């Protein structure tokens, strides 16, 4: 079945390609955002490589139906989109919920993944208290919409000292999100799998990034994630909270560029077996 996700698919304007093209980059946004979360990275990296950034089901311009019932549905949607676009292998980058989706992609189709970028995210499952809180928030969003929630959390999503332009972009993404899509995602995310046993079995390079002032996924959690991965680099972005790719894009992109160069330099090897 053809994918129904809205997406950006960008790459070098020139038709001349090197013998070994740079590895495609797939960018997975978090909650409650959309693919414009990755605007600085799309601009930077599409100059030299193919970059695909979808709107997840229920977010941005992607429809909220059929309703998401299982967290793995996000990964399956991405797989279907990449099949349709003919993107066979790639680096997967995700932030927050997007990072959890990236880990689920690696769990489901590791043979296609050449590198992982895990930004401001966690591999642990939800706690019982967290399940109740996410379900309650889903009910609230359906009843009230997202504006009140967006007003409350804006200065946790980005640091209070972030620029007015960044704050406006983030607030705009949140208030434009479908309450039905966000609620379905919250319920599915509350019941996501425990990805911690997967981490020591990851056979590709990983980049772990976190904003120094992130209170949703603090630096200590990023250090634990980094320690559990066999081949990982940790980068702490000073002057940023939960969205360092928007708050400090030049710093984030420098770290990502170095990581992508490392992935590109690796000779393709036989695909790892399914986990």
Structure description:
The protein has 275 residues and is of the alpha/beta class. The chain contains 10 helices and 7 strands. It has helices at 39-45, 72-85, 97-108, 128-144, 147-157, 164-176, 179-190, 219-228, 244-247, 249-265, and strands spanning 7-10, 25-28, 51-54, 90-95, 113-119, 206-211, 232-237. Strand 2, helix 1 (39-45) and strand 3 (51-54) form a beta-alpha-beta unit. Helix 2 (72-85) packs across helix 3. It starts with 6 loop residues before the first strand and ends in a 10-residue tail after the last helix. The model is unreliable at 269-274 (pLDDT under 50). Keywords: Hydrolase. Residues 25-252 form the AB hydrolase-1 domain. GO terms for molecular function: hydrolase activity. InterPro entries: AB_hydrolase_1, AB_hydrolase_fold, AB_hydrolase_sf.
- Secondary-structure content class: alpha/beta
How many distinct helices?
10
Tally the beta strands: 7
Task: Encode the helix/strand succession as letters.
Answer: EEHEHEHEHHHHEHEHH
Profile the largest sheet. 7 strands, mixed
Shape: globular
Rg on CA atoms, Å: 17 Å
| Helical percentage | 40-55%
Side by side, the strands of the main sheet go 1-3-2-4-5-6-7
- How far apart, in Å, are the first and last alpha carbons? 25 Å
The low-confidence parts are 269-274
Strand content: 5-15%
Mean pLDDT: 94
């Amino acid at each position: 079945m053809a994918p129904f996700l809205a997406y950006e698919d960008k790459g070098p304007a020139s038709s001349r390609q090197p013998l070994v093209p740079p590895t495609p980059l797939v960018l997975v946004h978090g909650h409650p955002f959309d693919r414009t979360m990755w605007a600085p990275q799309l601009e930077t990296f599409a100059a030299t490589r193919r970059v695909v950034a979808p709107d997840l089901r229920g977010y941005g311009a992607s429809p909220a139906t059929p309703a998401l019932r299982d967290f793995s549905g996000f990964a399956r949607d991405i797989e279907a989109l990449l099949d349709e676009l003919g993107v066979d292998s790639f680096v997967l980058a995700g932030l927050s919920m997007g990072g959890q989706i990236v880990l689920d992609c690696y769990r489901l189709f590791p043979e296609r993944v050449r590198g992982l970028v895990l930004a401001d995210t966690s591999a642990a499952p939800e706690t019982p208290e967290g399940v109740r809180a996410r379900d309650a928030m889903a009910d609230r969003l359906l009843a009230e919409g997202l504006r009140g929630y967006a007003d409350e959390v804006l200065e946790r999503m980005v640091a209070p000292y972030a620029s007015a332009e960044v704050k406006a972009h983030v607030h705009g993404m949140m208030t434009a999100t479908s309450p039905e899509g966000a609620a379905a995602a919250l319920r599915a995310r509350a019941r996501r799998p425990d990805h911690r046993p997967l981490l020591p079995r990851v056979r590709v390079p990983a980049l772990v990034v976190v904003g120094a002032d992130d209170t949703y996924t603090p630096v200590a959690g990023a250090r634990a994630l980094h320690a559990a991965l066999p081949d990982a680099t940790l980068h702490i972005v000073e002057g940023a909270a939960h969205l360092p790719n928007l708050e400090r894009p030049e710093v984030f992109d420098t770290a990502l560029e170095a990581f992508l160069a490392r992935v590109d330099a690796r000779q393709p090897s036989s695909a790892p077996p399914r986990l």
